[in-house]
Amino acid sequence: MIPRYQTVLFFLLLAASIIMGALLWQLRNREHQRLLQGEESTPTRAPEVAKAEQATLMVANDSDDSLSGRALSLPLPQSPEARARAILGKLLDLYATADAAHPVPGGANSIAQVFLLPVSGGASSSTGATAVDKGPPTGAELAVVNLTGAFAANHPSGIETESLTVLSICATLHTNFPHITEVRFLVDGQERETLAGHADLTRTYLTTEVLPAQGAAQ
């Protein structure tokens, strides 16, 4: 026969278990409702898609060492630096295609960053000869193009092909951003003497001196 105190203790424990279960159930339901209310109060926003705009790429051609304009419609962000990076990325995407007239591997990921800085002093000639008498125009900017080390390492070596890559980048920047009057290059955030052994990356390029005399948009 079970002692009476054990029976009483059993029913007390059973009652306590039922009460605790009910409390936990209420807490669970309350937390669930709070989460649902939080989800309902959070506005649902569709991901922002950059608006398509026209950009002109100054595309290099190895067959005649020329640059020619190619107008394309591209989704471009609002930030000028991000826009410049996107445009240059598309240019390098063209060079990375199988039928490119200026084949260079790497594509858009080869442009790590583009920085735009105000031009504060008189610009010196890209040949390093004499200083320009007139100061920079109002609002003139220097574009600093930071290339990846992988792009430089895999770029075909040769003065013509390297120069065409550099000049097409400079011309593309100025065509789409006329206020960019100067361009400098970095590789992995550091100064580098050449792109792949020939094209000088230590100098400042003046965009007005790299534009082709005639570049018809295709």
Which class of secondary structure composition applies to the elements? Answer: alpha+beta
Query: Main sheet?
Result: 4 strands, mixed
Q: What is the count of DSSP helices, taking H or I runs of 4+ residues?
A: 4
The end-to-end span amounts to: 103 Å
From the spread of the alpha carbons, the general shape counts as elongated
Classify the beta-strand content into a percent band: 15-25%
Overall domain count: 2
Number of strands: 6
Approximate helicity band: 25-40%
Q: What pattern of helices and strands is seen along the backbone?
A: HEEHEEHHEE
In the sheet with the most strands, the strands line up as 3-4-5-6
Q: Which parts are unreliable, with pLDDT below 50 for 5 consecutive residues or more? A: 123-132, 214-218
What does this structure look like?
The protein is α+β, with helices and mostly antiparallel strands and 218 residues long. The protein is built from four helices and six strands; from the N terminus they run αββαββααββ. It folds into two domains: 1-45; 52-209, no CATH class. The chain has helices at residues 4-41, 80-95, 149-154, 159-176; strands at residues 52-61, 66-75, 111-118, 141-147, 180-187, 205-206. A four-stranded mixed β-sheet has the order 3-4-5-6. Strands 1-2 form a two-stranded antiparallel ribbon. The protein starts with a helix and ends in a 12-residue tail after the last strand.
